[in-house]
Structures
1.
Amino acid sequence: MIIKVKSFKKPEFKRLLKYMVNDENRLFDKKDKSFLITHNLKGRKIDKLVAQFIKNESFRKRKRKDSVIITHEIISFHKDDSENINIEKLEEIAREYINKRNINGLYVAVPHFDKEHYHIHICASGVDYRLGKSLRMSKGGFQKLKKDIQNFQIEKFPELSKSLVAHDKKTKSYQTEKEYQQKLRTNRVTNKESIIENIGNCLNISTSKDEFFKKLKDSGLDTYTRSGKITGVIFENMKFRFTRLGFSKERLEELNITESRGKELSEVRGRKGRTITRNR
């Protein structure tokens, strides 16, 4: 797995948490299940979480202008492991990461799916809970954390072998982080592109929503719902929203208009046919 950390020296709680919790890339499985870990925090509303981060920062013992207020940490996995990844595994890895990093901090963790790979977003406080001690990690400490959490992954989820990376120069059997990132950048032919083309073809030859959804299924794309409405398609256990793929709600609603006009035209033709018959 790849672990990245970005430090913020000014309060960025609200914007980051809104993105993590509400962005359309947040991961939900086929049963519309996700997870939201709030470690040493109460409630799940954004404003309430933000207030607690700010309150906890007030306990900082050594205050400096360049103090790290929060860190945005991302645990990402190789896309070739996608078929072996699920919500439960991601949540277990996220909780283990928090335990190994420092259980005294404040954390929010949420799973996302974007750019064809799974990842976990984590917002971590700059100081521990109500004691004000800095949670800053040294370079060596962070390196140890990466090795420890990867060893946990190897032991608990050996099937996620494509996500293993070399965290030191002595390990030759795994690809390096640089090699993995390069592969992501160069591999631009993605499932998303073929899905967009498939949806576009089905949309162009459909005259109603029901027909559109049927053609999607016939082409191998099942649909999923959120709040009782069909929102997108599922491909290889991954969800893709119509809006995220460039198909707006307005464009889909045009199918209803086309269907309605077709029914009206049929009714008019039917009335004309009956009139001609009576005249005869």
Note: The chain has a mean pLDDT of 83.
2.
Amino acid sequence: MCLSAVIGELPEQGATRLPKLVIFDCDGVLVQSEEITLSVLISLLNAHVHDGKTLESAYFIEHFRGRRIAECLREAEQLLNIGLSREFEEDFRAQALAALTLELKATDGILEVLEQLTIPYCVASSAPRKKIEHCLQLVGLLPYFEGRIFSCYELGRWEPDPLVFLTACATYNVAVADARVIEDSVTGIQAARAANIKVLGFGPVHRHAKLAEAGALPFADMRELLTII
């Protein structure tokens, strides 16, 4: 199915349809990586500050969640009035990888969901493929997603652009009305909505208002997913 055909088949208002494809985000949905990697990023950024102005960790973990790192770095340079070297992103990724290797865990309940899910599923992420694969390998989830990975880096367009979700639907020959996206970030939710795909917002209860405001149906326990869909 071509992308134009996928886009053209929009969900009917008020219709209830069982999905034919579940599209998982990776960071913050399949694995609990966002706090780890973004804490490393904010710490490295704050180490470059000379005038005392720093980024508050809790706020910027939420603010940067789900966004392309290059975009976050450009914003941080403006906020902190600093210039980052070309090597900064490389150093960040190396330190983040080390932290993930030590601390990363699969989302509680995701293994039970994957074992019981009877419809096709895949992962679509703004992260590079190598990072997606590494994270899934660390927590034992890679066998469930081999051959089912879609990365914005390979498409050259990042969320909130909907292309990564539309590409997943086209690959599986599924109309957007028959897909569901599972996201934890506002940008990911925006991308799903731009693709006209119904989106479920996964996260702790204190984030539900933000997820709902972005346009997702919030839920807090991954095990609830089988009932919701």
Note: The CA atoms of residues 39 and 58 lie 9 Å apart.
3.
Amino acid sequence: MTKREHSLYLAHDHMYRAEDFRRDFDGGVGLKIVHLGVDAWIEAPSVRDYEAAYYVNTGFLARGLKRLTEVLKLERLGEPIKIVRNVADIQQAVEEDKLALILGFEGGKIIEEDVDLLDAWFALGLRHMQLNWAMRNSIGASQAEEDELDQPGLTEFGFEVISRMNDLGIIVDVSHSAPKTIRDVIETTTKPLLNSHSGSRSLADKQQNLWDDQITDMAENGGVIGIHFCSRLVLGINGVQSEIEDVVRQIECVTQIGGIEVVGLGPDYMLNFEGRDEDYLRNTNQLDISWTKGLEDTSEIYNIVDALKKAGFSESDIDKITSGNMKRLIGDVLPS
């Protein structure tokens, strides 16, 4: 395994196999938040099964635990990974020449409607939870509800969840949440927030991206916005592959609005996963999805460093974008 000048921290990733972790580290990644699942049964055997699970909680706890077990087993069998349970584990991963992993989940269905399940997940190693995926859940409204006249935000249960996550030391991730949900979280949380895979909505008008005032709110919270590498989120249109320069443009835009301290990397790598891609693309109806040319997986991810240098970012700023801002957020949230 090799080390690079800048150790990259990724705020959002779905690749959890041993070969994925080896590629990550060889590509220059020092730490990533790996998502054990999504608030949808994306690998369901049919569209009918996928749709039947869309608005229910059933099955997500069991599938999440199964995935958690698989990753913990890799660590136990000696794969060069280190599950991060506290801040000190990150430095230990560096000393042991391992990839640091923060275990997370994209959506709150893994706790069903029982806030005490957060304690159980925490004990098992979970240190991150995104509140929503593309649909509402018992915690609050997702981006799909943003146009409702009486826009919903956090539920009463959702406010309990934020408080418990803050107390335990679990990163609160507001990606995919409705604007009102994000506002409720910002007004409630005592810790910095993560928006793990997003961008500027003024550049790319997709619901997952953030308006200028939301970027400012995240900056004032001390939070971090992981810039997405998925083409449609970078460009705001479907069916066209983005270029590295387009990602840099997103970084420049978010930096100009919220400052250099608010920006991170949230590539959301999902594809090139034999046995999952076909079901995922069919079930979610995303056959035209693509990732930025030259940044399509972590074997290429160091290209973003070269592109930032070319765009005139200083070494100090590049360090903040690639790892420093995420390192600060993690230190502010996780147990010491």
Note: Residues 8-333 form a domain with the TIM Barrel fold (CATH 3.20.20.140).
